[in-house]
Amino acid sequence: MSDDDIRGRALALAWAGAPEERLDAVLALAASLAGMPRAHLYLAAGDERRLHLERTHGISAAPPRGDAEGGAGVALPLPPLELRVADDEDARIVPTPEGSFYSLPLRGAGGLVGTIRVGPIASGKLPRGAEKDLRAAAPELAVVVAAAHEADALGRRADDAEKRVAVGRRLQGSSLETGRFVTLLLRLAVRSSGADGGFVAIADGGRLTLRASDGLEEYTAAALATDLVEIVTETQSAFLRDADAAERLGVRSILAVPLIAGVRVEALLALVDLGGGRLDPASLVLLETLAEHIRLMLGNEQLFDEFVDRYLDTLRGLAESLDARSPATIGHHARVAAIADAVALELGLPSETRDALRTAALVHDVGLAGVAATPDAYIADIEHPTIGAGMLEALPLAPGVVEAVEGHHEWFDGWGFPRGSRGDQLHPLARVLALAEFAVEAAGGDAVQPPWPPARLANEIRERRGSQFDPEVADAAVRLLDGGRMPDHTSGGSAWST
Q1: How far apart are CA 28 and CA 323, in angstroms?
Q2: C-alpha torsion sign, points 66, 72, 77, 79
Q3: Who contacts 279 (Cβ-Cβ below 8 Å, separation ≥6)?
Q4: Among 101, 148, 144, which residue's Cα sits nearest to residue 122?
Q5: Crossing angle for the helix pair 428-441 and 351-361, nearest 10 degrees?
Q6: 26 near 140, Cβ under 8 Å?
Q7: What gap in Å lies between CA 218 and CA 221, rounded to an integer?
Q8: Alpha-carbon span 14 to 104, nearest angstrom
Q9: 3-state DSSP call for residue 301?
Q10: What's 490's DSSP letter?
Q11: Which residues pair with 42 in a beta bridge?
């Protein structure tokens, strides 16, 4: 087979179906060209000097049957899970636990994509012409592997995003449905009464704010709701505070029913006559009936909000109980939150973003509660950020909270876990939380190692700038440490003295 035929055969794999099917086809072709039974694909990660095992070809899922006592079989040795490669890595025969394998680097326009290993080679060298064929196919195989890997990663991220949006919509639906239902009832009240328009306002921080309006200019409805209507809780009635101002807005009369629980004003439902409608005593009966329905809907919405608050309190309590497992981890979440907030402030993030970051920091390791003492505990431990994010993703939280929890062990260069996300794939809050977690967990000290002083922590962060940490986040943390303004990672709260 000519080199052109081999290249064409390799490039044709780019259309071999789903991304994982393309990678399987790449390994099958490599094994065929080499005349070897097994092939392994390693993909580059981080700084491209480390490769991790992506998939294998030619290894059975179960060990072969044998005649040993008890039916025991002989299992094949497994390929190494990780490789380290040199800058000038070239095709060569390498020793492995499985025997000698031929290692073929795959290089693309952006650098090293990965490596394919084929073997085992019993004679110490490949069959005649096999090395030439593999080298001829390498550039096209690199293109196919890079494209398939990127497509697979994009597909996983899209699936994760779709699932998160779907779950969020389902469980946040009570709030959205409340808004639609209130608007529907208001429209029904306006149409049934013959009024020109109406509005619903809800109590927020001691004053009314407009929630829905129908048939009115928004500024008119907002002015009536927030400034011109006064509610008397003792008589459970409402009246115009400034009739002249209402008249200037074109309001001839208004019929309003306040929703009051005890001495607390919850909402106000009002119908408005602008001169073209009519308001009569029968409208008041209708309004009171509809107001009771709105009260029930708003009550359900408040119960949902209270549930969210109580659920977060439960998760924070669970995180604190995890911290209490050893003297070295007591106060861990609070210390991480303090450092994350200080770095966020140094970066100039707004207060609402800092609030979201603090929420994430106070529960970031709660997924460890799902790690059981089983043979698979190591895998579960690696997945604890995902578990924690899953415990939060259905709640109507501020943007970035779930993403920060899920990404607090990821590295900026992609060499973290559980997803190996990198750079812009990581939410900005996840990058801050990752540094805060490192400062407390790696440098906080334990029974074996004393806490690191600020200078050592700053030097370590400088060393990891651009690899483990976002450069801007690392620079902000170093400024705080050098200036003595970083909260103490050994106890949280106040900054170190200088």
Answers
A1: 49
A2: positive
A3: 193, 194, 195, 253, 255, 271, 273
A4: 101
A5: 50
A6: no
A7: 5
A8: 19
A9: helix
A10: T
A11: 53, 115
Instruction: State the DSSP code for 424.
Output: G
Q: Please report, for residues 57, 339, 438, the alpha-carbon distance to residue 45 in angstroms, rounded to integers and kept in the order given.
A: 21, 29, 20
Element at 178 (helix H, strand E): helix 130-193
What is the band of 262 on the pLDDT scale with cuts at 50, 70, 90? low
**CB–CB of 153/421 below 8 Å?**
no
User: Which of 396, 390, 413 minimizes the C-alpha distance to 468?
Assistant: 413
Stretch (H or E) spanning 52: strand 50-57
Distance of CA 235 to the CA centre of its chain: 50
Instruction: Concatenate the DSSP letters of all residues of 1-19 into one string.
Output: --HHHHHHHHHGGGGSSSH
More confident residue, 279 or 221: 221
- Enumerate helices (H) and strands (E) in the chain, giving the number of each: 14, 12
Of 239, 256, 251, which is closest to residue 276 (Cα–Cα)? 251
Q: Which residues contact 63 (CB under 8 A, 6 or more apart)?
A: 73, 74, 75, 76
Q: Is the peptide bond before 19 cis (omega within 30 degrees of 0)?
A: no
All domains in the chain, ordered by first residue:
3-158 (3.30.450.40), 176-301 (3.30.450.40), 324-482 (1.10.3210.10)
497, burial (CB in 10 Å: exposed 0-12, middle 13-18, buried 19+): exposed
The proportion of the chain whose per-residue pLDDT surpasses 90, expressed as a percent, equals: 26
pTM: 0.49
Prior bond of 120 cis (ω within 30°): yes
**Residue tagged 């065929």 (tokens):** 32
Alpha carbon distance 418, 189 (integer Å) = 53
Q: Decide if 411 contacts 467 (C-beta within 8 A).
A: yes
Helices 454-463 and 428-441 cross at an angle (nearest 10°) of 130
Task: Give the phi and the psi of residue 234 in degrees, each rounded to 5.
Answer: -60, -40
For the chain, the average pLDDT equals 80
Which residues fall within 8 angstroms of residue 114, CB to CB, at 6 or more apart? 41, 42, 43, 44, 51, 54, 105, 106, 142, 145, 149
Write the single-letter amino acid at 374: T
